[in-house]
């Protein structure tokens, strides 16, 4: 990120995510549900959570066992559930702040019942949903002969701790996601989750090659610095962009502060977002050095953006007639983001 557009920020000191903190969070959640007149857990669910808690304790997963017993609705809000229980020692070292503990737990719970056999039958790269706001997890390694499985590059160490009714529980060595403290304060994409296409196939994960564009970072930077609608649009169509431009190693993005096209139908939204993206990195200085009315190729086939000088000396550069109001607001060796006054449309008239 450009030093000129970032303010000095000091990460808050988080309490260790311990059993006591998690238990307090679970009790608070339960009290909240009671106060809002949510029905109490039915006897069948209670007995199932009790049986699951006992199985977890027998295998040494005491923190998740306590939470499942105290507040089962965190994990069992859908007809079926698969819980990936994190080891106690890994939870105690996790830097997630207490107020995001529920999100962490729901990211490790899928609204599907998946036994170890079910998981091993899936092809590597398969994605499946979690209870957290549409975030997905992905199978990143399978060793069927040795019954080894990794999800988000984390080993499933205790398969099939419980398979009862609509519930499956497997133990994992550590959390499925790293955590970005600054992003959590902005409330966007603090989970480093994989990106999957419309067919639930993995196209990019948090361990993606350092030789390609850092799309997840770009989306986080946009969303946490006022370009929320464009970030949402980019996130919505990113799977298709990655499929078509998997080896893209540099980019320039022209980000509008207001992006009204975010509610457009998917094909149109995809085209409009792509029209704001160049397959090459240009700093503002490099753009300024181009000849007037230079044409720059976008990632929409046969569509170009025109770079021109402003109508007066104070306006600076324009792209397709829209002023670059925030040059070089974010940058790295792989990308540059420039803020523009308005969206550029879908490129049909260019």
Task: Please give a structural write-up.
With 350 residues, this protein is an alpha+beta fold. It is built from 11 helices and 16 strands. The strands form 3 sheets. Strands 2-1-7-6-5-4-3 form a 7-stranded mixed beta sheet. It has a 7-stranded mixed beta sheet with strand order 11-10-16-15-14-13-12. Strands 8-9 form a two-stranded antiparallel sheet. Strand 6 (154-164) and strand 7 (167-172) form a beta hairpin. Helix 8 (215-223) runs antiparallel to helix 9. The longest helix has 17 residues, at 19-35. The protein is elongated, with a radius of gyration of 23 Å. The model is unreliable at 1-21, 30-40 and 181-189 (pLDDT under 50).
Give the arrangement of secondary structure elements.
Blueprint: H1 19-35, H2 43-58, H3 62-70, E1 81-86, H4 88-92, H5 101-107, E2 109-110, H6 116-121, E3 127-129, E4 136-143, E5 148-151, E6 154-164, E7 167-172, H7 181-186, E8 195-196, E9 202-204, H8 215-223, H9 228-244, E10 251-256, H10 266-275, E11 277-278, H11 284-288, E12 294-297, E13 304-309, E14 317-319, E15 322-331, E16 335-340
Parallel strand pairs: 1-7, 10-16
Antiparallel strand pairs: 1-2, 3-4, 4-5, 5-6, 6-7, 8-9, 10-11, 12-13, 13-14, 14-15, 15-16
Helix pairs in contact: 1-3, 2-3, 8-9, 9-10
């Amino acid at each position: 990120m450009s030093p000129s557009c970032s303010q000095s920020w000091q990460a808050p000191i988080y309490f260790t995510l311990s059993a006591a903190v998690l238990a307090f969070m679970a009790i608070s959640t339960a009290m909240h549900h009671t106060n809002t007149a949510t029905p109490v857990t039915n006897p069948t669910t209670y007995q199932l959570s009790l049986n699951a808690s006992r199985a977890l304790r027998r295998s040494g997963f005491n923190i998740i066992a306590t939470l499942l017993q105290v507040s089962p609705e965190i994990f069992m809000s859908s007809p079926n559930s698969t819980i990936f229980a994190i080891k106690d020692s890994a939870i105690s070292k996790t830097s997630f702040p207490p107020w995001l503990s529920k999100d962490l737990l729901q990211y490790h719970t899928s609204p599907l019942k998946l036994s170890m056999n079910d998981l091993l039958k899936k092809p590597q790269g398969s994605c499946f949903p979690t209870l957290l706001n549409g975030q997905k997890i992905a199978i990143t390694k399978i060793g069927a002969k040795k019954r080894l499985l990794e999800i988000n590059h984390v080993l499933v160490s205790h398969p099939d701790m419980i398979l009862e009714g609509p519930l499956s529980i497997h133990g994992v060595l550590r959390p499925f996601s790293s955590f970005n403290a600054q992003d959590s304060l902005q409330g966007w994409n603090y989970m480093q989750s994989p990106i999957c296409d419309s067919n639930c196939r993995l196209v990019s994960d948090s361990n993606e090659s350092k030789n390609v564009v850092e799309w997840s970072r770009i989306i986080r930077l946009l969303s946490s610095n006022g370009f929320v609608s464009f970030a949402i649009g980019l996130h919505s169509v990113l799977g298709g962009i990655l499929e078509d431009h998997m080896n893209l190693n540099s980019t320039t993005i022209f980000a509008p502060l207001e992006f009204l096209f975010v509610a457009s139908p998917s094909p149109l939204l995809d085209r409009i977002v792509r029209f704001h993206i160049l397959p090459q990195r240009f700093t503002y200085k490099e753009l300024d050095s181009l000849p007037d009315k230079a044409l720059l190729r976008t990632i929409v086939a046969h569509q170009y953006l025109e770079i021109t000088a402003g109508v007066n000396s104070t306006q600076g550069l324009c792209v397709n007639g829209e002023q670059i109001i925030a040059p070089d607001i974010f940058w790295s060796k792989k990308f540059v983001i420039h803020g523009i006054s308005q969206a550029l449309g879908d490129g049909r008239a260019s």
